[in-house]
Specification:
alpha+beta; about 110 residues; single chain; 5-stranded mixed beta sheet; Immunoglobulin-like; globular; 4-stranded mixed beta sheet
């Protein structure tokens, strides 16, 4: 029985260790929504690294942080903060926006 559990534990430790390595490689980007604008309106990240957006809504109404290109959409209520994780991306310019206020536009530039 122990002979079977040992390889299983090793496999689990390897998988968990890989997850930790990926978390350490993650790029964290902070964006604020204020007066129906993103601040900053353009953020940058290196290619091939997972991305974690921290989005804080300083406005008085809810916003929907969305990107069709990056495949996410999440509501940010007034005065709150959300976290959105994005898979590693190839170099390019990716649009994100507030789906409740379409004039609110921003870009992720991956290099």
């Amino acid at each position: 029985m122990l002979k079977k559990i040992g390889p299983l534990l090793l496999a689990c430790a390897t998988l968990l260790g890989g997850g930790l390595a990926r978390a350490q490689d993650m790029v964290t980007l902070s964006v604020v929504i204020k007066d129906h604008k993103f601040e900053p309106a353009e953020v940058q990240a290196p290619s091939g690294k997972p991305i974690e957006f921290h989005v804080k809504n300083l406005g008085s109404s809810a916003s929907e942080f969305e990107s069709r290109e990056l495949h996410f959409e999440k509501v940010v209520t007034a005065g709150s903060e959300i976290v959105v994780r994005v898979r590693p991306q190839q170099p390019g310019r990716y649009n994100f926006f507030d789906d409740f206020h379409h004039e609110t536009q921003g870009f992720l530039v991956v290099q």
